[in-house]
Design brief:
Number of domains: 1
CATH superfamily: Acyl-CoA thioesterase, double hotdog domain
Order of helices and strands: HEEHEEEEHHEEHEEEE
Structural class: alpha+beta
Helix content: 10-25%
Length: 286
Amino acid sequence: MSDPALGRLLALLDLEKTGEDAFVGVSPPEPVQRVFGGQVLSQALVAATRTVDPRRLCHSFHAYFLRPGDPRVPIRYEVDRSRDGASFSARRVVALQNGLQIFILAASFQKGEEGFEHQSHMPVVPLPEGLEDDQQLLLRDETLTAAARAWVARERPFETRSVLGRGPLGETRPARAPLDHIWLRTRGAVPDDAVLHRVLLAFVSDMSLLDTSLLPHGKSIFSNLQVASLDHAMWFHRPFRADEWLLYVQDSPSASGARGFNRGTIYTREGALVASVAQEGLIRPR
């Protein structure tokens, strides 16, 4: 693992323990207005995991974003050990800043078991080797504003290659169906730790999903909109590695009430369904 952005992310996920079930996380020193939702998701999942028998892995979590996080203020994660049963453990995590709840997460953990198996099929799409890196592709967009260009140019711990293309990211863009296929992986090798790979996938799962609900309206997250993740749920189905190519299939079946609903399924390049995601986000015209 040599990529600096990936190294910084792994450092952010190494929370400081401040009590029996309390942890503190910080944000990267970047000039942003609020904490990235995927960061809070992944840090909260780390906090919950550290209170669970290591033989039990997270199989699902459900979360709500309550307030914008201030990147200048450390985030305190308090874990409630809701239940430890014979096969499952349940945890509830509250993230706080300045004494106020900014985020809550409920997660469930399970010992490995054998049972019935079936899954949906992965779409037939071009392989990542034949696609261009999204960052390089977007940086050639001459319509990018200075703010959008700075956002795109940031060092990122994940590389992504979109089958259908994510741009342009200006005020308007050609409207199309709310469907996308994105290959992704970390920009470097990650240690052989199943927990870490799940936490990293939770982090990146929030990175492009909300934008899917804007595709049929010819808008992007840089349009004159108020956008924010409201909730996020994720289910882990099978083992995977975040440092190997994964296909993130995204769609948005509905938008109403200034909210966009988005779904995602994540496959290995061999076609194994490893995770599913659902999210609702605010997409309010200003």
